[in-house]
Amino acid sequence: MSQKIVVGVDGTAEGRAALRWALAWAQNNKAEVQLVNVTDDSMLVVTPDFKAAALEASEALLREELAYAKEQDAAATITALAIVGHPIDELEKVSHTAALLVLGGHHGHRFAGAVFGTRGVKIAAVSQCPVVIVPPEFTVADPARVVVGVDGSKAARNAVATAARVAAGSGAILHTVYAWMPPTAPGLQHLWSSEFVQQQEDEAKEALAVGTAGLAADYPDLQITQEIVQQPPVQALIESAKDAQLLVVGNRGRGNIARLLLGSVSHGVLQALPCPVMVVHQK
User: Fold this and answer.
1) What is the reported pLDDT for 116?
2) pLDDT (0 to 100) of residue 188
3) What is the DSSP letter of 193?
4) How far apart are CA 140 and CA 154, in angstroms?
5) In this protein, which residues make up the domain named UspA (predicted)?
6) What is the model's pLDDT at position 187?
7) Which domains does the chain have, with CATH numbers?
8) Cα–Cα distance, 226 to 223 (Å, whole number)
9) Among 5, 76, 85, 117, whose CB has the most other CB atoms within 10 angstroms?
10) Secondary structure (3-state) at 96
11) Amino acid 239: pLDDT
């Protein structure tokens, strides 16, 4: 059974950027694509007549998006699903049977589209499968790179494993980033010394070595590069991911509270959206 890639469409240019990305991903991964349009009823009293009209409008939009997808010479099997409900809740339900959920985004502090709006971050937090937010425009440098942050956490290890699999499957370079900052709290300035810097550099190298251990055996042809920077993690990942094929970030687990929120790093890079960003959860 082939994997299913779900892509949220809403008739916008941002939604179509996500659709094109999803079609390319599906072709490379031999997956089928399902277009989903959710009509938001959260602010309305839903009557049978409203629901029927909403579904009719959604199905009309999906017919247009299906036609657009076929114009892209997509080889994947493509289906469509019209839903009336709350976008976050409905996409969380859909994510249970998906291998990947793809949404369109907008550079700089908001996500575009009347259907998904600023809810993109929340959808990424509650999804049961990895989520990719695709900017409306982006450039991939040659050679292509998949960028991932390393910090020793379980979430980062899961992100590295996913990033390595994606990079190996697409022939891209896996670029690992370790970011650290000197102490800035009052009274700790004396720690900012050459010895301290060297200690941090040594710990960073060890973290990168541990974080990528075993990848060479799993993916013999995978090229891995490393970068150690003195920057806040969000800034470091944003700058490293410019012109990248994909930026992969980990997220905390799915506890009752944690599952409703993205970590600060995931949230920060989704705000900037330097390239397509994949959010993966702890297993």
Assistant:
1) 43
2) 62
3) S
4) 29
5) 1-135, 145-281
6) 63
7) 4-134 (3.40.50.620), 145-280 (3.40.50.12370)
8) 10
9) 5
10) coil
11) 96
Scanning 106-227, the segments in alpha helix (DSSP H) are 120-126, 154-170, 194-211, 215-218
Tokens describing residue 143: 């050679």
CA 62 to the chain's CA centroid: 23
List the beta bridge partners of residue 225.
Answer: 175
Burial pattern 221-252, b for ≥16 Cβ within 10 A else e, equals: ebebebbbbeeebbebbbbbbeebbbbbbbbb
CA distance 180 to 199: 12
Return the residue matching tokens 């699903």.
81
Query: Tell me, what's the pLDDT at 228?
Result: 94
pLDDT at 76: 87
Low-confidence residues of the chain, pLDDT below 70?
A: 1-2, 43-45, 106-118, 183-192, 252-262, 283
Q: Look up residue 68 and give its two tokens.
A: 């657009």
Amino acid (1-letter code) at residue 177: V
What is the pLDDT at residue 104?
92
Measured CA distances, 51 to 38, 209, 222 (Å)? 12, 55, 50
pLDDT given for residue 108 in this prediction:
46
- Do the bridges between strand 246-251 and strand 100-104 make them parallel or antiparallel, or are there none, so unpaired? unpaired
Looking at residue 72, the DSSP 8-state letter turns out to be T
| pLDDT value at residue 262 | 63
